[in-house]
Design brief:
alpha+beta; about 20% helix
Length: about 200
């Protein structure tokens, strides 16, 4: 599994209806993309759920890095983003674990992301503890999918969770999103992805 996300921060007075219309018109294009586990078309709206910005921030989990590369630089779809918004920085993480939640059959309406620094000492133990915590989180009512990944450039851990309804108020998240559409051609290939022992 490989995770990626790009964040397109928009002006404070931007009409987010434009993004909603864009996703409604184009979101289905990746609904059956080979190599893609899922793409969550997520947004944050300024003043909603604590967001300080308007932002379009699609999040991907890929099963196949060759398919991801083709999408990004091989003419497989990313050029539409570049044409509309310019070329954004694309963040990426190597997958550690992914779990299906009890709401996997529902259409997710919300997502949460948590980024945390990883310690230089006790790295293996920290990742093992986060993997165990992810399994517990994934068993909660309302969870569609939960994933854990690492950025070894900045030594950050990413936890991304799709929720059937709203992100619970007490959820430990650095960002909360609204999900406009979910393309999920191969989510089952994520399930049971082994984390550290």
């Amino acid at each position: 599994m490989y995770a990626k996300q790009y964040e397109i921060t928009l002006p404070a007075d931007y009409d987010m209806g434009i993004i909603r219309e864009r996703v409604a018109a184009r979101g289905h294009v990746l609904d059956d993309r080979a190599g893609l586990a899922l793409k969550a078309y997520v947004i944050r709206e300024r003043g909603v759920d604590g967001s300080p910005v308007n932002q379009y921030a699609p999040f991907y989990l890929w099963n196949d890095t060759a398919a991801m590369s083709h999408f990004l630089v091989g003419g497989g779809g990313f050029e539409g983003i570049v044409q509309a918004f310019g070329r954004p920085v694309v963040r990426h993480w190597t997958g550690i674990a992914a779990e299906a939640g009890p709401a996997r059959g529902a259409v997710p309406r919300a997502a949460s992301r948590r980024l945390t620094p990883l310690p230089a000492e006790g790295l293996t133990e920290a990742v093992a503890a986060e993997t165990a915590a992810l399994r517990e989180l994934a068993a909660r009512d309302g969870v569609h999918t939960a994933a854990l990944a690492v950025d070894p450039h900045h030594w950050q851990l990413l936890r991304f969770v799709l929720w059937a309804e709203a992100v619970p108020p007490g959820e430990d998240a650095t960002e909360r999103y609204e999900v406009l559409h979910l393309s999920a051609p191969e989510p089952a290939r994520l399930d049971g992805l082994p984390g550290p022992a």
